[in-house]
Amino acid sequence: MKNPAVDAYIAKSADFAQPILRRVRALMHKACPQIEETIKWGVPHFEYQGVVAGMAAFKQHASLGFWKQKLMKDPARLFPAAGDSSMGGRRFRSVDDLPSDAVLLRYVKAAVALNAAGVKVPKAARPKKPPPKPPADLAAALRKNPKAKATYDAFPPSHKREYVEWITGAKQEATRLRRLATAVEWLAQGKSRHWKYQDC
Predict the structure, then answer these.
(1) HEC profile for the chain?
(2) According to a count of CB atoms within 10 Å of the terminal CB, is the N or C end of the chain lower?
(3) What average pLDDT does this structure show over 26-43?
(4) Distance CA 193, CA 75 (A)
């Protein structure tokens, strides 16, 4: 199903880009007659049970990218080099730079098949931050107060980090000493840094 907003996008694109965008658009619909058009992030996208691909026009090139290209085979080298996390594909400066219709149809059908099968792009694992090391003054204060130390040691890294950052973030020595004393008092009572807000 064609979207008038995509017509408008193509019409206002540079002359060299218009035939590229029109051809990509036509092949999207040929490969998957049920595909739908939308504008996302200011550029045309094609959807079938999720985003399939997007195309865009720039001042000197146009591009085509597949949403799940990391899960697709790329015999025609249509995708960006490894390490490029963007969805943009290879740059095209003329319609003659595009791969053959047969190649593009294969790519679109492969992308549609991934969506139809419900395949999800695996989320990149976020690197875990190492547990924070307490500053010397906090470590010394905890050694003098076994209850506070037991609470601190049992806390997850995120709770420890809240106390460490609160104490080390003090701009003046007097503020730091006040925060240190308060931290030890709260820890001895088994409280996290933000205990006041936990029942809100």
Answers:
(1) CCCHHHHHHHHHCCCCHHHHHHHHHHHHHHHCCCCEEEEECCEEEEECCCEEEEEEECCCCEEEEECCHHHCCCCCCCCCCCCCCCCCCCEECCHHHCCCHHHHHHHHHHHHHHHHCCCCCCCCCCCCCCCCCCCHHHHHHHHHCHHHHHHHHHCCHHHHHHHHHHHHCCCCHHHHHHHHHHHHHHHHCCCCCCHHHCCC
(2) C
(3) 95
(4) 54
Model confidence, pTM? 0.60
For the segment 190-199, what is each residue's pLDDT rounded down to a tens digit? 999 988 775 5
Distance from C-alpha of 101 to C-alpha of 180, rounded to nearest angstrom: 68
d(CA 95, CA 25): 13
- List the single range of 62-71, 98-107, 126-135, 173-182 with lowest mean pLDDT: 126-135
81 confidence band (pLDDT: 50, 70, 90):
low
Question: How many residues would you count in the chain?
Answer: 200
The full set of domains in the chain, from first to last, is: 4-116 (3.90.1150.200), 136-197 (no CATH)
Closest by Cα among 152, 153, 150 to 180: 152
